């Protein structure tokens, strides 16, 4: 079952990206390095609640 999740920047907390995640195969929070327009560099983005 896929669930829509929102990714927020770990440094500035801006919510930049949204994606789908399979909850049955990945029960933990998603962490991806992506580009943040606010910071102007690649940072760690974490799944928000």
Automatic annotation (TrEMBL):
Keywords: Ribonucleoprotein, Ribosomal protein
One GO CC term on file: ribonucleoprotein complex
Protein's GO biological process: translation
Gene3D superfamilies associated with the record: Ribosomal protein L33
GO molecular function, one term: structural constituent of ribosome
PROSITE patterns given in the database record: RIBOSOMAL_L33
Entry keyword annotation includes Ribosomal protein: yes
Superkingdom assignment: Bacteria
Homology family: Belongs to the bacterial ribosomal protein bL33 family.
UniProt-listed NCBIfam families: PRK00504.1, PRK00595.1, rpmG_bact
Protein name: Large ribosomal subunit protein bL33
Organismal lineage: Bacteria, Bacillati, Bacillota, Bacilli, Bacillales
């Amino acid at each position: 079952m896929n669930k829509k999740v929102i990714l927020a920047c770990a440094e500035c907390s801006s919510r930049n990206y949204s994606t789908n995640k399979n909850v049955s195969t990945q029960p933990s929070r998603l962490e991806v390095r992506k580009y943040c327009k606010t910071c102007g560099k690649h940072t760690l983005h974490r799944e928000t609640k």
